[in-house]
């Protein structure tokens, strides 16, 4: 059999696509756990990340997701920014278990980690303002698969972004990054380079220290920065305060499947200012006299309380703001604006980065779990 010539002769062998394809070839991705080659017949509708994710759910459920151990390079986080590592420690979605595929391009020869970490630090500190926090939640609604730190970085650099992907991913989808467009800088965790045996001293071998965390500055582009083949499935609903009947219906179905009773019975003896209630472990009441939009907002809020208190056992200290925030994220994902403009406890959270990280993580966990349940 004649030796196949590389698809891109000018690209180093290690950066060649895993399976170069021709017009007659199906798009595939190889599972790094079992080695199975997964064909993607409807590639314009299903990305490689999605196809691999479905395979992992079916064939490798319960197994931990692998870190991006095969991405080379990366730089240690400077000491002054070590307290921000928890915000960015999760793999970038396009890189997760797909480390042989250069889906996101990084600039060569320019050290960016200090600049990006400084930007992230400023973004985290600015989140205490209600407007900035609301903008962050809107970003989370669109990019809940990304780490909290990378959501903040996307928000700071392109607050109107709707769908982001790396240069090669857009290329695979039949779209091209417009000339002159600047990428959105995010941080991808990588494994540090292994020191050569001769580089280790006796003192280093005897001293056990935590391994430094390395990151690489990589770039994604919003769909508005690209042109080419139309992707109608990427349309994003306009954020409005009108009740979303489909979301209302699906949310009631989800709660029923979770064993939660949702009641709309009239309770004239309850204070009119109370629009609804969650009673542990599985009772939700929504005031029926309210307009449909208010009923949906209440159901989202009380459903978030169910997940935070009944499923994840999140302490009640910040439960109200976490539930309100998660409800906003889920509503915004479907184009429904819950109308929240003020988040009074966020300024207090931001004083302690650990508290902020824990509470933002709780919001993301509740919102992501609700979104995954609604999208089944």
Structure description:
By secondary structure, this protein is α+β, with helices and mostly antiparallel strands. It has three domains: 13-59, no CATH class; 75-233, no CATH class; 245-374, no CATH class. Helix content is 37%, strand content 12%. The protein is built from twelve helices and eleven strands. It has helices at 48-59, 85-88, 113-126, 130-142, 148-157, 167-172, 202-206, 245-257, 292-311, 319-333, 346-349, 353-374, and strands at residues 27-30, 37-40, 75-76, 164-165, 175-177, 184-190, 214-222, 226-228, 261-263, 276-279, 283-286. The strands form four sheets. Strands 3, 4, 6 and 7 form a four-stranded antiparallel β-sheet that branches. A three-stranded mixed β-sheet has the order 9-11-10. The chain has a two-stranded antiparallel sheet with strand order 1-2. It is globular.
- Roughly what is the average pLDDT, rounded to an integer? 75
Q: How many helical stretches?
A: 12
Give unreliable regions as ranges: 6-24, 64-72, 95-110, 200-212
Beta fraction: 5-15%
Query: How far apart lie the N and C ends?
Result: 46 Å
